[in-house]
Write a structure and sequence with these properties.
The protein is mainly alpha-helical. 69% of the residues lie in helices and 5% in strands.
């Protein structure tokens, strides 16, 4: 009876020690919450009392052999302490996995938001160009009405290339090739058309692309 009582006392002491170790390695040291410390100790004691059950399942006679044998008793204490500390590794691994998953999810959401903003920036000019405004369909201001005489031959050719090409958003290289214009002249011409609100540019995943505005389309129709 004395050995059994001593064994129970040792298990309680080792379990509580494991709980204290877990508290100071996992818990917040800046805020020594006694209630949290007690919970850690109780958890350590609980898992320590599972040791005899586990040893019995595996057919171990360590508990019986430890009576009167200090070496076996130390082995049993070491096993109990290791089991009492195990919840720390479990909670740490779970917390780390949750943190990693949260970070990965956050990065995916930020990437999707960035791609959505890029897509929105690319589509807004297209939507504005291709959507008719009922309020302004029959009341175009003379200031907004394009003047066919304000463009030179190069600007007119570039504008036609923008409006009649296969693609809505044109690259600088494609425009130069199709209109047979050198890059320096093309850049100046596109800048002039943008200044006149006849063309616009948008940045996307493939770089800067140029497009024709509704005002530019009306000018092409006037020249047709």
């Amino acid at each position: 009876m004395g050995y059994f009582t001593s064994l129970i006392f040792i298990m309680i002491l080792v379990g509580a020690a494991g709980g204290v170790i877990n508290f100071y390695t996992v818990g917040n040291r800046r805020q020594a919450d006694i209630a949290v410390l007690i919970r850690y100790c109780l958890l350590g004691i609980f898992v320590t009392f599972l040791v005899p059950f586990v040893l019995n399942i595996f057919g171990s006679t360590l508990i019986v052999d430890s009576e009167g044998d200090p070496a076996n008793m130390l082995n049993y204490v070491a096993i109990c302490l290791a089991v009492a500390i195990l919840p720390r590794f479990f909670m740490t691994n779970v917390a780390d996995n949750i943190l990693l998953e949260t970070r990965a999810t956050t990065e995916k959401v930020e990437l999707l938001q960035y791609q959505l903003r890029q897509l929105q920036e690319e589509l807004l000019p297209l939507i504005d160009t291709e959507t008719e405004d009922d309020a302004l369909a029959d009341t175009v201001s003379p200031i907004d009405e394009p003047n066919a005489n304000e463009l030179d031959a190069t600007s007119s050719e570039v504008l036609k290339t923008l409006g009649c090409g296969r693609f809505i958003y044109r690259s600088l290289t494609g425009l130069c090739r199709e209109s047979e214009t050198d890059e320096s002249t093309m850049v100046k011409t596109l800048g002039f058309l943008t200044l006149k609100s006849l063309a616009g540019k948008v940045g996307g995943r493939k770089g800067v692309r140029w497009y024709i505005t509704e005002r530019g389309r009306r000018l092409i129709e006037l020249n047709a």
